[in-house]
Write a structure and sequence with these properties.
The chain is 37% helix and 16% strand. With 264 residues, it is an alpha/beta fold. Strands 5-4-3-10-9 form a 5-stranded parallel beta sheet. The chain has a 3-stranded parallel beta sheet with strand order 6-7-8, with helices on one face. A two-stranded antiparallel ribbon has the order 1-2. α2 links the parallel β3 and β4. 43% of the residues are buried. Homotetramer. Forms heterodimers with either ThiH or ThiS.
C-alpha cells in the first residue's frame, strides 16, 4: 500500500479506521465463514442485526462474538427489522448493555417489508432520542440531500444513503443525488445497501464516498471469501482514483503521445 493509502484514514466519531469497507455479519454459511470473509475484506467495523444475530442475548447458543471478538473488531449494532422509532431505540439501548456501554450504533427504521426503504420521519424521531441519550449514530437513509442535511443537523456521526434497495445488488441507481449529499456533507458519507459487485463499490468511492457498507454482495456470492477480497481492493482502488482526480471526459479523441517533434 502506498503512502497516501496508509495515512488516509476513515474517521467516525473521533476514531480512525484504516479500512473504508464495512461489512455485515448475516447470511453466511456458518460463523467460520463469517470470520473468514470478514478477514478477507480487511474490515474493521462489522455491523450486527441485534434482532437476528446472537451476541449474548442467548447464552446457550453460539455467539457471533466468539469469531468476531470486540477487541479485534468494532461491533456496530444495527436495528434491522425495526419499523418504528420506539423499537429502534429500545433495540440499541439493549445492544449498548450487551456490548459494555459502547456508543457507536447504526440506525435503520424501515418503511415496509417489500422494499426495506427507510422510513425517514421515524428515523429522524429515533435519531433525536438516541443523540440525547449519548449515542454516536450512523444513519441508514434515503438518497435525499435534504433528509441527509437534517440528519447531520440533529447530530448523526455518519449518513448512509442507499445506493439501491437492500439486498437488490442493483448498484448505484442515482449517482447525482449521492453526489449532492457528498458535496454538502459535514460528516462521513457511506453507501449502504444495493452494492452487487466490486465495480459498484469502486464507483461509490470514485464519487467521493468515505466508505461502503455491504453484506449480501459478499455473503450471497458464489465464493464469499473471494468476493470479500475483491471488494477490499475495489474500495481501495476507488478511493485512490478519487484522490488522484480523473481526467476530463471529451467528445473528441486526443492522442496519448506527443504531436510535435516527430521523427521524419
Amino acid at each position: 500500500m502506498n503512502a497516501i493509502a496508509e495515512h488516509d484514514f476513515l474517521t467516525i466519531a473521533g476514531r480512525q479506521y484504516a479500512s473504508r469497507l464495512l461489512v455485515g455479519s448475516g447470511k453466511y454459511r456458518d460463523l467460520a465463514q463469517t470470520r473468514e470473509a470478514t478477514l478477507a475484506a480487511g474490515a474493521e467495523i462489522v455491523t450486527v442485526a441485534i434482532r437476528r444475530v446472537n451476541i449474548g442475548q442467548d447464552p446457550n447458543a453460539p455467539s457471533l462474538l466468539d469469531v468476531l471478538p470486540p477487541d479485534e473488531f468494532t461491533i456496530l449494532p444495527n436495528t434491522a427489522g425495526c419499523y418504528t422509532a420506539k423499537d429502534a431505540v429500545y433495540t440499541l439501548q439493549m445492544a449498548r448493555e450487551l456490548l459494555g456501554g459502547r456508543k457507536l450504533v447504526k440506525l435503520e427504521v424501515l418503511g415496509d417489508e417489500k422494499t426495506l426503504f427507510p422510513q425517514m420521519p421515524e428515523t429522524i424521531k429515533a435519531l433525536e432520542v438516541l443523540v440525547r441519550d449519548g449515542f454516536d449514530v450512523m444513519v441508514y437513509c434515503s438518497d435525499d440531500p435534504v433528509q441527509a442535511r437534517i440528519l447531520q443537523e440533529i447530530g448523526c456521526v455518519a449518513v448512509m444513503p442507499l445506493a439501491s434497495l437492500i439486498g437488490s445488488g442493483m448498484g448505484i441507481l442515482n449517482p447525482w443525488n449521492l453526489s449532492l449529499i457528498i458535496e454538502q456533507a459535514s460528516v462521513p458519507v457511506l453507501v449502504d445497501a444495493g452494492v452487487g459487485t466490486a465495480s459498484d463499490a469502486a464507483i461509490a468511492m470514485e464519487l467521493g464516498c468515505d466508505g461502503v457498507l455491504m453484506n449480501t454482495a459478499i455473503a450471497a456470492a458464489r465464493d464469499p471469501v473471494r468476493m470479500a477480497g475483491a471488494m477490499r481492493h475495489a474500495v481501495i482502488a476507488g478511493r485512490e482514483a478519487h484522490l488522484a482526480g480523473r481526467m476530463p471526459k471529451r467528445f473528441a479523441g486526443s492522442p496519448s503521445s506527443p504531436t510535435t517533434g516527430l521523427a521524419t
